[in-house]
Amino acid sequence: MTQKGETMSTNGPAFPHMSKGGMSKRDYIAAQAMVGDMANSDGGVFGDDAPREVLLKRARLYYRMADAMLEVSAEDDL
Predict the structure, then answer these.
(1) What pLDDT is recorded for position 13?
(2) pTM beyond cutoff 0.90
(3) Smallest Cα–Cα separation from 65: which of 21, 42, 39, 35?
């Protein structure tokens, strides 16, 4: 798993052919995890009054999931 400030070799741009810079693969995977989670929940966790702590905890989960997926992807490339 990457530490703050580090990047994995597979964490390049999510859409390199479309623009310079932009969203990383890590950000894209984390966002897709969030979309899937929201589509499969009743919305209670993400209501307008959801506590900030709950939202931060979920965001960290999505990025941990993205880091794990990138790590496995890098292993598969060996």
Answers:
(1) 75
(2) no
(3) 35
